[in-house]
Amino acid sequence: MSDGIPCLWMRGGTSKGAYFLARDLPAGRAAIDALMLRIMGSPDARQIDGIGGGDPLTSKVAILSPATRDDADVDYLFLQVFVDQALVSDAQGCGNILAGVGPAAIERGLVAAQDGETAVRIHMVNTGEIATATIQTPGGRVDYTGETRIDGVPGGHAAVPLVFGDVAGSMCGSLLPTGRAVDVIDGVACTLIDNGMPCVVMDAAAFGLTGDEAPEALESDAALKARIEAIRLKAGPMMALGDVATKSVPKMTLVAAPRAGGAIATRSFIPFRVHSTIGVFAAVSVATACALPGSPAAPLAVMPDDGLFRVEHPTGAAEVLLEMGADWTVLRAGVVRTARKLMDGRVFPGPSR
């Protein structure tokens, strides 16, 4: 460790994270978790002695290894390193960090690049599903430059299309783990749904909100956060997630009628901070909830004719293309993200605490 650990620091979608090869890390999750806390500088609200940015969106880790499945090219394990707690969670995947996995796998020699474009089949170890990322590789090298823009990221970059198969019940075992489109928890109508990400979808109006509040205003409302957390703790066991007090799922999403031409407006708790955008898989789950009769999202949503849902969030909108079956299962989902290599070098973990 005194010589540092090879690390790619990358932006994936609207998140940033450290990308490692599994062979460069110690064996065993306990040792890895302890190491990641030292690398990120947790627990500390500023993460001042590590590379984390003091925000859940910049305190993320991807661990890559050779594929263990015939239908994949690379294995990807996502870890969420909590900022102000000594916790590391693999209880969820991350669709934004996923956008950097294809480029990182090519950069590190796990996947051979083709001339032009390279399709990378990614085994998402957290949930067991497969995603296919298409990476721009002119001349057999990753090219991050381009004109594709996504809300929440300045400037244009190379597009990274991501395509998913059936992701229903990724962690909860079924799309609607309670078997119902709506459950009432603490007097609030909720849709408990898992279409790639376990989410609790609620009408912002049930909390006396309009749904267009700034994240900072929601962050500062201690009573609101306590009420939402109380619902989350009850929803966890109902969603087959068990005790979620120290877990990063389910995500808590407040919805409202769209205001900028989208399908639905959102404000997401992830779960202890308010997301400045919305996660990729959370957007898929919320878009699906819009189509469920009885869901709090359904009467608020403006349903698209072409299956392209623009899920509005505080800094713009995430576009999700859904092909849905008769039982509301997503047969295929597609999103376009971008990614960029920010730093390639060695990271030096802080001292053990």
TrEMBL record:
This is 4-oxalomesaconate tautomerase. Gene3D superfamilies: Diaminopimelate Epimerase, Chain A, domain 1 (3.10.310.10). It holds the Pfam family PrpF. NCBIfam families: OMA_tautomer. GO terms for molecular function: isomerase activity. The keyword Repeat does not apply. The keyword Isomerase applies. Belongs to the PrpF family. Keywords: Isomerase. It comes from the Bacteria.
